[in-house]
Fold:
Amino acid sequence: MRRTPALRDLRRETRLFPADFIHPIFVVEDRAAAGPVASMPGVTRYTIDQLDREIESIIGLGLRSLLVFGIPAAKSPTAYSAIAADSVVCRAVERIKKLTDRLVVITDVCLCSYTDHGHCGVVAGGAVDNDATLDLLGRTAVTHARAGADLVAPSGMMDGMVGAMRAALDEAGRLETGILSYAVKYASSFYGPFRDAAESTPAFGDRRSYQMDPANAAEALAEARLDIDEGADAIMVKPALPYLDVVRRVKDAFPDVSLAAYQVSGEYSCIKAAAAAGWLDERAVAMETLTAIKRAGADMIITYFAKSAAEWGKGVGSL
Structure:
């Protein structure tokens, strides 16, 4: 039953489709900041007026979902530009929605790209003030929803973030806006290239006081349960490949809740660098890792390989 490609395909248990992928996209306010991300080969930061061609390309490849990250021109201690109705994310969402109604547009709701210190919330006394941050997250989610976001995705790992955002959205009459929560987000060493792209490296300390300890797995179930109870419509495990055991445990515990896994920047850049050195076959390794993530239980995969994977599988039923 493994003798030929057709026989192997006949009994394949796990299949990938373009619709499985969520494509991350970086949008910058400062035109000088646009262009390729050096630490993430193949990834580009776009200005809003550069989005049209990229969106057409994404749709042409059969992808159906985007995760929008915004990088503002101005940063502040209180991340005031994050809550503005004309923030870079809001303008990007409005542009995308004018171009097409065929994409699910998800917005990352965090403050790290908007603060001048790079932490995911308001800092007081040298530490993140969890409760002061919740109000800003709720207000940010509302502006994204009004701009047209289908889902908002809180990523800061603040206690109570989903409940605060759900309450803010409901109060604003945005009952239809869903929440994809970064429910299980580890204090990982795999985020470095992303922080280059999003300009979100902490100016002091680290994020271990609010992101999860990589040694903990059972805690993931508690975190996921809290966010589900607070109103999350879907949940996420981040990173993906080093935490496949956690992906499986979360899916087994909450089989009826849509689960995303984020193949993060470090996972992507490791494969790109090894392939560039001739040590690995990029296409084969990328597809193997994506298959493993779905096999572990992910319903959706956020990956910088989304466009490449869709291109590699173009013209076939599954990838």
Q: What stands out?
A: The CA atoms of residues 150 and 176 lie 8 Å apart. The mean pLDDT is 93. The first strand starts at residue 21 and ends at 28.
